[in-house]
Write a sequence for this structure.
């Protein structure tokens, strides 16, 4: 049985703690974080690194900017594997530990939204056989899809994820605001959104492209720009239209 400590109390740490605690072949020993009063964790949370257990694996699941500080607080005498879950931080950030690695789950995490680890892609990086073994055991017990990625590849994976998730969701929010102003519910867009994603999967994103920019329908695009009262959204509309046209050789 793999004994695991988690450092962090954010979204990723929360879902990892839940999944590990639910797995009979993994043992969640403790959670260490800045806030000991967080709700929903399967074990109590501590704020002290002074007595961190000599577990098999410490998972650092904190904001990228906090990793360096956390690393300095973990005793250098720790004999197990230390890994972080960040996409944009190189494994070398854990250089003070003999066995180190990265366990990067490519997903969006929210505490209020249930998550299934089944078939979720997890990208591993390690420097020793022990580190690789422990990270593989964790991923396999969570039934995730194992992949290998270097620190450089992981950065590009995260960049692609930001384009396909964070930026897209921000556009959803803008679409919702446009509809709210007309007292139209966002739900009316759901069939369109589902079909857009389905076509991107069944065709390719480029082959699935439609819309006025692809048709070079200048009249419709100009009407859209004039209908937008927010200057930033007008500029964004024009830039995204140019992106579509550049991708398809129209400009």
């Amino acid at each position: 049985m793999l004994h695991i400590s988690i450092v962090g109390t954010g979204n990723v740490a929360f879902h990892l703690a839940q999944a590990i605690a639910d797995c009979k072949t993994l043992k969640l020993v403790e959670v260490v974080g800045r806030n000991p009063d967080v709700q929903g964790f399967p074990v109590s949370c501590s704020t002290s690194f002074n007595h961190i257990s000599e577990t098999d694996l410490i998972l650092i699941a904190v904001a990228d900017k906090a990793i360096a500080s956390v690393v300095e607080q973990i005793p250098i005498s720790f004999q197990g594997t230390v890994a972080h879950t960040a996409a944009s931080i190189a494994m070398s950030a854990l250089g003070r530990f003999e066995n180190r690695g990265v366990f990067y789950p490519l997903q969006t995490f929210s505490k209020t939204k249930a998550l299934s680890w089944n078939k979720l892609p997890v990208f591993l990086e390690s420097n020793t056989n022990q580190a690789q073994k422990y990270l593989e055991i964790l991923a396999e017990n969570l039934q995730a899809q194992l992949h290998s990625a270097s620190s450089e590849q992981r950065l590009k994976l995260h960049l692609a994820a930001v384009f396909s998730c964070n930026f897209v969701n921000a556009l959803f929010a803008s679409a919702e605001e446009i509809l709210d102003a007309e007292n139209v519910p966002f739900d009316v867009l759901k069939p369109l959104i589902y079909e857009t994603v389905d076509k991107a999967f069944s065709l390719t994103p480029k082959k699935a492209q439609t819309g006025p920019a692809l048709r070079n329908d200048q009249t419709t695009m100009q009407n859209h720009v004039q209908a937008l009262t927010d200057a930033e959204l007008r500029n964004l509309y024009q830039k995204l239209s140019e992106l579509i046209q550049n991708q398809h050789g129209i400009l």
